[in-house]
Structures are given as structure tokens and as C-alpha cells.
Amino acid sequence: MDFPKLKSIIEGLLFLSGEEGLSIKQIAEIVDQRVELVTDAIEEMIGEFSQQGRGVQILKIAGVVQLGTLPEHAVYFEKLAYSPARTSLSQAALETLAIVAYRQPITRVEIEEIRGVKSERAIHTLVNKDLIIEVGRAEAIGRPILYGTTKSFLDYFGLASIKDLPEPGLFEDSENLEEETQLLFNKLDLQQLEPENADPADDLSHIDSEDDNTDSSL
Length: 218
Fold this sequence. Notes:
This protein is mainly alpha-helical. Helices cover 49% and strands 11% of the residues. The strands form two sheets. Strands 3-5-4 form a three-stranded antiparallel beta sheet. A hairpin with a 7-residue loop joins strand 4 and strand 5.
């Protein structure tokens, strides 16, 4: 495998791995190359990203390599996260939120097994909106992140605790996913009947442009 192709593949792998990242050993096993060669490729990529003024950088944190944004751009990311035009959630995000709410703590891989599509973008959306949060690490290979709902989630849905969620039939697979999501939609509909307690800018029932096709491309 030539060096440019190796670097291109590594960049794609880091994009797909998201915030969990990959160790150099994992990357080497996936691309079937020596650890030393992968290390050299990553070091060269770090320098190239910096020299080219790219909007992302390659980070090495606690033995894991991942893509990250630039700290000096944080103000723009905050504007995106809190823009009124992006306060709504897509169907993909609502499905993901329902899964986390009823199955927490849960990993991204488990969410994707239930939904049947990549869910990293939906998870990032929910984290940015403070509806879900990292609550720990699973006792599994790679120590994947466990997600759970936040106080903001409870506040929005008018719940005293997670135990007050609409009673579901405990679902074992994706067949009942629509039912679980509909329970949250119903809760939203009830809340919208009380406008004095609801902020139109925070209406989660609208659907934005993000969809499963976009999710699947990650």
C-alpha cells in the first residue's frame, strides 16, 4: 500500500471512529500494516494538517488517536450549537434520544445495533443540545462511552425523574423502536398544549434536514 493511500484510509477511519478514536495498534490491524509505518503516517498527517490550515486536527490522547476541531474556532461551534435555527431535532435524533432514554446507560454501538444505521451525528446533536451526556465507560474492549439523559432532558419533558417516562414495553430489537419514539412524540404533544410552559424556540417536534441517509454516511 502506498503512503498517500494509507494516510487517506487512516483519515477515514478516524472520521468514522468519532470521539472514541482508535489506537495505533487498532489502525495497524485494520489496514494490515506495521505499527511503525502507521505511526509515521499519523505523525506526517499531524504536520500536514497544521501546515495546510485544516479545520480539524489529529489528536493523540491517552493512547488513542482521533480527529478534533481547533480550539481557536470554538466560538463558531458555539454559535452553531446554540443557533435558534438548529433547535429542532430530526427523526434520527429523536429515535436516538428515545433509545438512550429507555435503555441507558448505553453505548453508541448498541444504539446503532437497534437503529440499524450509524448514529454518531445524532449522538453529537443530542450532546450539543445537552439532552444526553457521557455517564461512564463500558466494561468492554476499548472501554466505549456510555450515554445517559441529562437534567435538561428531564426539564424539557417535565419529568421528575427518568422513572416518570411513559411506560414502554421493554424492547429487545428495532421492531418496537417506532413505538418508543412515538411515546416521546406524545409527551411532546401534551407539553405543546401548555404554551405558557413551552418555548417555541425549543420545540423538538419539528424535523430538520438531518436524516438517516446522512447518518449512514458517517
